[in-house]
Amino acid sequence: MGQAGIPGAGGGDVTHDAEKEGARMSFAGAMAYGDYLRLDPILTAQAPLSRAHDEMLFIIQHQTSELWMKLALHEMEAVRRAIREGDMPTALKMMARVSRIMQHLNDAWDILRTMTPSEYTRFRDDLGQSSGFQSWQYRAIEFIAGNKSAAMLKPHAHRPEIAADLERRLAEPSLYDEAIRLLAREGFEIAPAALERDFREPYRADESVAAAWAAVYRAPETHWALYDLAEKLVDFEDWFRRWRFNHVTTVERVIGFKRGTGGTSGVAYLRRMLEVTLFPELWSVRTAL
Predict the structure, then answer these.
(1) Labelling 237: which of 69, 162, 272, 278 has CA 20 to 30 A away?
(2) pTM of the shown model
């Protein structure tokens, strides 16, 4: 009974000596795990402004979300570039990864929802006017996904380098713009208005694009790469919608209908965002078929 509860115990010595198996144990003058990942600045970047226990959760939730958004942007840019260059295997692989990132971001709301309204009010005033509404990476994701709005540059005017980066992203074709261009290159008749437009403006549904996607969905075996891309885009928007829904639900659960710290109407503003559709024809085609 002396070995009870010890995994793998069979009466012998189960002590594991990694050094005897060749593991390096001394890293003086060498790059170790923490050095490569630069863990010191990452793990010391949490600086609560209050003595509230739950502020650490709030900070880490948002910091890690920003890291995942950085990766999402990295992958979405690769997808857009691959579509433009006709490299569909890469585009499809990276687009699937973006959806998994969005799934992970959705799961993170479950952790934040363990914070009660009473716990949040203990440090909310310390946030000042800072708000997730001001996340420039989230704005960049929206721009590359196609939800364009020049007005959303204003919260970043005090950071010229960030404002310039977002201005560039605003003017670039979105993922969906590149997908529509691909439809045209594949021989579908796409109206010039859908191809030669001001990319700073939100995309508006176009009948020629709807007809092209309908043809793809009616003969997926003939247009498999386009069909697969369409479903990968829908998968992404599906997760993105869930992220927005989880966001508004979490906010309502924690602060009710108070105004957001950044000045928005809070839940009311977030609910309006639920109405945004990124790839309209890919949703309407389901009714048309």
Answers:
(1) 162
(2) 0.88
Asked if 46 and 63 count as a contact pair (C-beta separation under 8 A), the reply is yes
Q: What is the C-alpha separation between 249 and 270, in angstroms, rounded?
A: 9
Instruction: Give the tokens for residue 246.
Output: 């989880």
Contacts by 40-48, CB closer than 8 A, 24 or more apart? 48/123
Rounded to whole angstroms, the Cα distance separating 203 from 280 reads 9
Dump pLDDT digits (tens) for 180-205: 999 999 999 999 999 999 999 999 99
Give the HSE-up count for residue 243: Cα atoms under 13 Å, Cβ half-sphere.
Answer: 21
Integer CA distances (angstroms), 178 to 3, 74, 128, 192, 284, in order: 62, 17, 40, 14, 19
Question: What sign does the dihedral 69-232-282-206 (CA atoms) show?
Answer: positive
Query: Which among 253, 239, 244, 250 is positioned nearest to 273, based on CA atoms?
Result: 244
Contact 123, 53 (CB under 8 A): no
Sequence-distant contacts of 30-37: CB under 8 A, at least 24 apart: none
